[in-house]
Amino acid sequence: MRIDISGKRVLVTASSSGIGKGVARAFLKEGCKVIISSRNKENLDKTVSELKSSIFPSVWGVQMDLTDYHSIEAGLRQIIDLMGGIDVLIFNFGNPTNEPSYFDETTMEDWEYSVRMYLEGPIQILKRLLPFMRRQRYGRIFFLSSWTVKSPQSHFTLADVSRSPVIQLSKILSKDEGRNGITVNTVLMGSFPTPGAERSLKRIAERKNESYDELWKREVLSPIAVGRIGDPEKDLGSLLVFLSSEYGGYVTGSSILIDGGSSPYVL
Ligand SMILES: NC(=O)c1ccc[n+]([C@@H]2O[C@H](COP(=O)([O-])OP(=O)(O)OC[C@H]3O[C@@H](n4cnc5c(N)ncnc54)[C@H](OP(=O)(O)O)[C@@H]3O)[C@@H](O)[C@H]2O)c1
């Protein structure tokens, strides 16, 4: 099987670092035109020049804060001017403010930020980009989520509650858009080494008064059946590249688990 998705126009949200950046690299390696985006222009510029210097010329940075209606609108205008539409739309996210936090510790501002980022931001983007996909009769949409939506964690209450409705949205869109050549899937991610994951685990370790290394071994590494943490580019990026190719057209409306076998669930 030879996969050719070269030239596809790809947008990865929240991708100046971590998972989003790794996924962007995977598509750049396949010869796609990739737009990375995030809130912070400095981070974006740094990542764009790093990717360009790794011999990936077809990368652009567009500032877009998923919690800010006007920022998204301005970003979308830029993207449409630049690319005339998008073929592969990958929704990655930042982290809620104050994460990890238990329900009692959250404020209404935290909820507003989290729901805006995980749900309303993507809806706003979909409303603008779906018509382009319909016209070209091809599109791939991925919502990068977490295995924790199957087993919500108290200290991730903001993220796990706010990103769960996206699974319903993903299913509904897969049914409505399948005949237009558009597939829509949610990806339930396990553990990937990123600045965000490290930050979060450090805070949990502090709260539990435990060493970071011990917590990492016990809670992160030891449950992973294959005995290693995931690589955002090689493990996750390759899966998304495959699903974006002509061979991925029959996979839609699914919640795909990619966690190295750490989840205890069979379904
Ligand atoms: N790492 C894991 O093991 C893991 C596992 C399951 C799920 N997840 C989820 O995957 C997502 C990404 O995690 P990560 O570990 O890669 O985090 P990360 O290393 O902190 O990276 C987050 C990225 O999102 C951007 N960002 C943050 N807030 C944003 C906003 N409001 N609008 C647009 N961009 C924003 C950041 O850039 P700027 O600061 O420049 O905006 C950065 O590029 C999170 O939702 C996390 O819960 C992670």
From TrEMBL:
A Pfam family name for this chain? Answer: adh_short
Q: Where are the transmembrane segments?
A: none
Please name the Gene3D superfamilies in this protein's record.
NAD(P)-binding Rossmann-like Domain
- The lineage's top-level taxon is Archaea
The family database entries (InterPro entries) matched by this protein are listed as: NAD(P)-bd_dom_sf, SDR, SDR_fam
Family (UniProt): Belongs to the short-chain dehydrogenases/reductases (SDR) family.
Q: What is this protein called?
A: L-rhamnose 1-dehydrogenase
Q: Which organism is the protein's source? A: Sulfuracidifex tepidarius
